[in-house]
Amino acid sequence: AQSVAQPEDQVNVAEGNPLTVKCTYSVSGNPYLFWYVQYPNRGLQFLLKYITGDNLVKGSYGFEAEFNKSQTSFHLKKPSALVSDSALYFCAVRCSISGGYNKLIFGAGTRLAVHP
Amino acid sequence: ETGVTQTPRHLVMGMTNKKSLKCEQHLGHNAMYWYKQSAKKPLELMFVYSLEERVENNSVPSRFSPECPNSSHLFLHLHTLQPEDSALYLCASSQALTGHNQPQHFGDGTRLSIL
After folding, report:
1. Is B101's CB within 8 Å of A99's CB?
2. Contacts of A102 in chain B (CB under 8 A)
3. Are the beta carbons of A106 and A90 closer than 8 angstroms?
4. Which residue among B51, B104, B109 places its CB closest to the CB of A102?
5. Neighbouring residues of A80: CB distance < 8 A, sequence distance ≥ 6
6. Which tens digit of pLDDT belongs to each residue from B66-94?
7. Closest CA in chain B for residue A35
8. What's the per-residue H, E or C state across A83-101?
9. pLDDT one-digit tens code per residue, B5-45
10. Strands (E), chain B
């Protein structure tokens, strides 16, 4: 069965430092992976996705993610964190297609806190 | 602006009330989703409509009743709710059939509080 794990409930980082939010997955077949961000009192916003191709995927707001097939990981990264990056981050994997729609399995989320 | 609008943004209701949550998408999508987001729990997929047909119902209690009158609108009718139903209810949409690799687009949710 497909699953996603985000091993850290919270990540703390100083502004200007690089950040990493971890995600590991388990799928049958090729993985289709997504990262979303949720700011307070808002819905989830799409950041980036990996479908195929280059292992380093670039997304919105300067974020990128590295796909590692051997480690079944898809960690979210940013070279220099901003206080405004503080939010809840979700990793998701596409479940097997059924009914013609894009079913996603979400991780439990990781709260990122960037301190000035 | 995400292209997915949910109303109301906040709702407080008693356990005996009947209310409805509304979701409207302006993205031309034809699959729509209801999720429940509770504190310290993973996002729970409740219902999925694809091409206006309900294709998934994840053991959701019957006090939640979805309705999808067309591909742009999705409702969640609520009645006789319990305190544990207090949560953020999120609507999302995507392109069915041809959009398997595309992300879902989310609304900002309805914060529901059951008294």
Report:
1. no
2. 31, 94-96, 99-102, 104
3. yes
4. B104
5. A16, A17, A18, A62
6. 999 999 999 999 999 999 999 999 999 99
7. B103
8. HHHCEEEEEEEECCCECCE
9. 999 999 999 988 899 999 999 999 989 999 999 987 889 99
10. 4-7, 10-13, 18-25, 31-37, 44-50, 53-57, 64-70, 73-79, 87-94, 105-106, 110-114
The owner of tokens 């034809």 is: B30
Confidence of residue B98 (pLDDT cuts 50, 70, 90): low
Average pLDDT, chain A: 92
**A chain contacts of residue B104, beta-carbon cutoff 8 Å:** 44, 46, 102, 104
> Contacts of residue B47 in chain A, CB cutoff 8 Å?
none
- Is the Cβ of A100 closer than 8 Å to some Cβ of chain B? yes
Point out which residues pair with A13 in neighbouring strands: A114
Residue B74 near residue B67 (C-beta atoms within 8 A): yes
